[in-house]
Specification:
There is one protein chain. The chain is globular, with a radius of gyration of 16 Å. With about 220 residues, the chain is an alpha/beta fold. It contains ten helices and eight strands. The protein has a single domain, classed as Alpha-Beta Barrel (TIM Barrel), CATH 3.20.20.70. It binds D-xylitol-5-phosphate and zinc ion (ZN). Zinc ion binds next to strand 2. Pfam families: Ribul_P_3_epim. Its EC number is 5.1.3.1. Belongs to the ribulose-phosphate 3-epimerase family. It catalyses: D-ribulose 5-phosphate = D-xylulose 5-phosphate.
């Protein structure tokens, strides 16, 4: 299996100092960028031009998490902005297979995200189209919420389905990840871990990234 990836979310960082905030997580594998449009979720963050500037400035690749409506129309701009991976929500896409192929053609790795109430079954038939499945472990929209342990079976099902199909699939978890919950998520089969508040509230972000990576990898 692939090594674990620790992807700090800059959502709760100081947006006035975003360049320095990206430098603070240079020890991590990827920077998780939460794109929100005030429609799919009740919060508003970055658009493609900001993501393009962050991609140029960041010492590590960007993992864009699109919490936006009408992903079919808007997602490709984030691949063109230079994000290494682009993850759209299954609930926000009319034609997820077509969109995945467009994103691949634009040069990105492609992820598909599931809100907590979205069942995994409709995804299983099209799993081969994706490089990554993001199992949300909070309701998307805000950092600092508590991990939903009821999502652990969903992580397990995605990992098992990928194994059965012989796919090399990353399983990402996002929401409430800390030193305790990362262990549960890893045990269930996740290998890509987003952590926002756990890393940005730590005095030493690099040390927290290292601690999370060590727990996830064992
Ligand atoms: C929530 C976002 C997350 C958020 C995670 O909608 O998708 O990426 O920043 O923050 P924590 O780790 O604090 O739950
Ligand atoms: Zn996210």
């Amino acid at each position: 299996t692939a090594p674990v990836s620790i992807n700090p979310s800059v959502l709760n960082s100081d947006f006035m100092r975003i360049g320095e905030e990206l430098d603070r997580i240079a020890d991590a594998d990827r920077a998780h960028i939460d794109v929100m449009d005030n429609h799919f979720v009740p919060n508003l963050t970055f658009g493609p031009s900001m993501v393009e500037q962050m991609a140029r400035r960041s010492p590590i690749p960007l993992d864009a998490h699109l919490m936006i409506a009408d992903a079919d129309r808007h997602a490709v701009a984030y691949a063109e902005a230079g994000a290494e991976s682009v993850t759209f929500h299954l609930e926000a896409a009319q034609a997820p297979v077509r969109l995945a192929r467009e994103l691949h053609r634009a040069g990105a790795k492609v992820g598909v995200a599931l809100r907590p109430a979205t069942p995994v079954d409709p995804l299983l038939d099209i799993l081969a189209e994706f490089d990554m499945v993001l199992v949300m472990t909070v309701e998307p929209g805000f950092g600092g919420q508590s991990f939903l342990p009821s999502m652990l079976p969903k992580i397990r099902r995605v990992r098992e389905a990928a194994g059965t199909a012989g796919l090399e699939l990353s399983v990402q978890v996002d929401g409430g990840i800390n030193r305790t919950t990362i262990e549960q998520a890893a045990e269930a089969g996740a290998d890509v871990f987003v952590a926002g508040s756990a890393i940005y509230t730590a005095d030493d972000a690099a040390a927290e990234i290292g601690a999370l990576r060590e727990i996830a990898a064992r």
